[in-house]
């Protein structure tokens, strides 16, 4: 019975320590954010880590923006190549069109 009370006392001390340090409030806020998330993340632990690190949802936004930036850079490169190809084709046929107009 004494060991039970000692363990209970240690547990209560630890709970007070966590509460005083703001850990319980931080965990509660992050868990509520996860609960209220319309689309649950595949990795809940990663979600908790990101939101507890202080970076909050901005970290996820930054990562999404980095992915979008990479995709857009690839698209710009592809369109630039296509534009260059079309210009070379136009140059190939443009002199012939001007020669015909002069005759």
UniProtKB/TrEMBL annotation:
The molecular function GO annotations come to:
transcription coactivator activity
Stretches the record annotates as Disordered: 78-103
Q: Where found, per UniProt?
A: Nucleus
Composition-biased stretches, type Basic and acidic residues, lie in: 85-94
For this protein, the record's InterPro entries field holds: AMY1
Q: Which UniProt keywords apply?
A: Nucleus
User: Out of the domains of life, which is the source?
Assistant: Eukaryota
Alphabetized Gene3D superfamilies for the sequence? 6.10.250.1060
Main location group: nucleus
One Gene Ontology CC term in the entry:
nucleus
The UniProt family comment states: Belongs to the AMY1 family.
Q: What is this protein called?
A: c-Myc-binding protein
Source species, please? Answer: Phallusia mammillata
């Amino acid at each position: 019975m004494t060991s039970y009370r000692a363990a209970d006392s240690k547990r209560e001390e630890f709970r007070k320590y966590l509460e005083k340090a703001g850990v319980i409030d931080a965990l509660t806020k992050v868990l509520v954010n996860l609960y209220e998330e319309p689309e649950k993340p595949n990795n809940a632990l990663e979600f908790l880590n990101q939101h507890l690190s202080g970076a909050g949802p901005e970290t996820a936004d930054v990562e999404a923006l980095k992915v979008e930036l990479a995709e857009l850079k690839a698209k710009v490169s592809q369109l630039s190549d296509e534009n260059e190809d079309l210009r070379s084709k136009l140059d190939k046929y443009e002199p012939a069109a001007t020669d015909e107009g002069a005759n």
